[in-house]
User: Fold this.
Amino acid sequence: MRILMIAALMTSAFGLTGTAVAQDAALSGRVDRLEREMRAVQRKVFPGGAGQTVEPQIVPESNTTVPGTPSGSPLVDLGARVAALESQSAALIGQIEQAQYRLRQLEDAFSAYKRSTDARIKALEETASAVAVRDPIVPAADVAVATPKPATSKPAAEAPAPKPATTAAAGGARAQQVAAIEKPNSGDAAEDGYTYGFRLWQAKLYPEARRELEAVATKYPKHRRASYAQNLLGRAYLDANAPSLAAVAFYQNYKTNPNGERAPDSLYYLAQALVKLKKPSTEICKVYGELTQLYGDKLSAEMTAGVAKGRTEQKCK
Assistant:
């Protein structure tokens, strides 16, 4: 009888040991797979090199006894913890893959935007080049100094005598007009230069205004007023009946500073300069299209109405 009891106990012990070994082998395989997945996650999160791991911020206290009845054997608890860790690892890998997919989408969208912008800028460059080639740049017609006329073959008695006093008087009157314009002195050279150029432009002293505005745009290209100065420079040429020079100034402002505050205005007045140059409607409509596509939400009510009127006059589609 004792022999039978001993044999039964040994059989039970061996059976339990075999079950424990089988469970331990299964758990070991899961832990190995989990370690491989975590290493893969670390390679994605820390591609710079080894040694960079995520340390837990909350560490369990040692020698702490949890009150209550344990839910199971240590092996069962460890298996539950490994299963939870596996679930978290799978979720983390999924988030990384989604982030990589969104990054690829952003890169594709930026590449498409860059190609579209480059194409539009190239089209405007071709328009500006055509203007420069067909209408060579000439000096503005509003220069105050009179050009001397060539000598005639008439007798001295018939030739009118020169009047230097009159010319000097005219030059003195213009100098007085320029001197009457107040020069601001706020301490900001770019702001003061633009304000002074604007006042000269308002007084219709276009050559003097152009000198001040061109100096601001050249010396302070990163200043906020650079866009204002370059745009007003084009308007000074346009008001002086020099549309070729105006078109070059407007296009230069849009090309070099497309995010400037007066870039939309430059495109608007560029279309007007092309109209004065009697350019084809296709070129003018191209400028109007560029203006509404890039700056439609930034246009004033007056400029929006002007664009609509210009598109109607040019029969833009």
In short: Confidence is low (pLDDT under 50) at residues 1-17, 64-69, 132-159. The domain at 123-137+178-314 is CATH 1.25.40.10 (Serine Threonine Protein Phosphatase 5, Tetratricopeptide repeat). The chain is about 70% helix and 0% strand. Residues 74-134 form the longest helix (61 residues).
